Amino acid sequence: MVMPTILADRYASLDYTESTNNHVFMKSCTNGYFEQNKYHQHVQVEEHNAAPLAKQLIGDALRERVESIDHENCEAGEEDTFFVADLGEVYRQHLRWKLNLPRVKPFYAVKCNPDPKLLQLLSALGTGFDCASKAEIEQVLNMGVDPSRIIYAQPCKTKSYLRYVANQGVRQMTFDNADELRKIARLYPGAELYLRILTDDTSSLCRLSMKFGASLDSTDSLLALARELGLNVVGVSFHVGSGASDPRAFLKAVQDAHVVFQQAASYGYSLHTLDVGGGFCSDETFEQMAGVLRLALDEYFPAHSGINLIAEPGRFYASAAFTLACNIIARRTIQDSELINNGTMTPDTSYMVYVNDGLYGNFSSIMFDHQHPVAKVLRANGQTLYDTAAAEANTDGDGVEYSIWGPTCDGIDRITESIRFPVVLDVGDWLYFEDMGAYTKCSATTFNGFSNEHDVIYVCSEPGARALLGL
Ligand SMILES: Cc1ncc(COP(=O)(O)O)c(C=O)c1O
């Protein structure tokens, strides 16, 4: 992954230069390069060297925990699945955001992962928060965040929640239909409204536009109704779908938003904010998506227009920061009976392994978020293998084959259909899964009586984040 170099001149409040513990930040700035297509401008940033420290801290936390468990005698649940969260990763993502989308203020989408320390760090970094329910809004307000840093980004709101936000002074919210406008007119006429428009979300993992968003055919009449009801429309919002992969979706959405700004002006509204939603992945596609978005914004909403730009990124911040460790609670040996019977070959032994987390738990991301978490071996044969070659799955067809299953009685509770490792795994061994921070814990259930409350061990590979958190 390309990581940002901290730009000393532009981000003074976050800037530091350090060269200790394999943790080198360079005070330098690259100007980026431009491809021929003006909508494919990238900010190319230098990779800094935080990865070894991050791996070391995560590895130490995993090792300490799993090696401290006496699997033969421990209390029920002591070997439960657990997370290690590197808050330094969140901090680096924030810098990466600032570098690539300097004009766009992020309002973190709490739904993605409402982890309290993650929210605390983001609050200290000065982000806003996108909330979709009373509980999310309450959690953020209880942290001391000013209501002006919250957007209630749910176009179809519960009436009692609307009364709640009116009492709390959370003014910003989205709408996309006439019924919602009438509801808001009755319950919170002073709200600051964002008209959420439809996008082309066909390239995304989780499509949202079949449920939310006003088509450009309907925006004019919605603005007319808002005016008639005396409501305060202040901006336009959109979401190109969670886990989007086609940057052109951002370009089209920005162009459409520009049209709606002009429509609004014809009704006497002077819209002041564009909300470009979420959809940004944390992998290397981010630079490309952000590059297209940045140029589209510069063209249609240039700095001199005075329009504020905000966004609602979720997985971009949370995904890579969380690593999940699961214990193998049972194993079933499978022998290929055909091979045994005809006796011409050594029978291939494979295994079904059952771990203490699954699709009804933190792997809910497989069902709801279309993810494919990849297992690695954390501990086998009495050895902790984190971040070694022996931890990795074989991709060449060699090694022992496994399928990996969750702990519930449901047959769909399968994490991995087939994976090969160089080692033979047994009950009591551990697996780990990286990139488990987005849409995992938040949608876990307690089906079959398995807990969805799992420990999070926090580490922090960035001194800046440690300082902000007072660690
Ligand atoms: C309204 C809204 N904003 C933001 C997000 C966060 O999206 P992502 O995690 O893809 O950035 C979502 C996700 O579903 C959403 O529905």
Automatic annotation (TrEMBL):
The EC designation for this entry is 4.1.1.17
PROSITE patterns annotated for this entry? ODR_DC_2_1 (PS00878), ODR_DC_2_2 (PS00879)
Which CDD domains does the protein's record reference? PLPDE_III_ODC
An example Gene Ontology biological process? putrescine biosynthetic process from arginine, via ornithine
> Which Pfam families does this one have?
Orn_Arg_deC_N
Instruction: Write out the pathway annotation from the protein's UniProt entry.
Output: Amine and polyamine biosynthesis; putrescine biosynthesis via L-ornithine pathway; putrescine from L-ornithine: step 1/1
UniProt entry keywords in alphabetical sequence: Cytoplasm, Decarboxylase, Lyase, Polyamine biosynthesis, Pyridoxal phosphate
User: Which ranges carry the Orn/DAP/Arg decarboxylase 2 N-terminal domain?
Assistant: 87-318
Q: Which family does the record claim for this protein?
A: Belongs to the Orn/Lys/Arg decarboxylase class-II family.
Q: What assembly does the database describe for this protein?
A: Homodimer. Only the dimer is catalytically active, as the active sites are constructed of residues from both monomers.
Summarizing the function annotation, the protein's role is: Catalyzes the first and rate-limiting step of polyamine biosynthesis that converts ornithine into putrescine, which is the precursor for the polyamines, spermidine and spermine. Polyamines are essential for cell proliferation and are implicated in cellular processes, ranging from DNA replication to apoptosis.
Question: Can you say what this protein is called?
Answer: Ornithine decarboxylase
Q: What is the originating organism of this protein?
A: Cladorrhinum samala
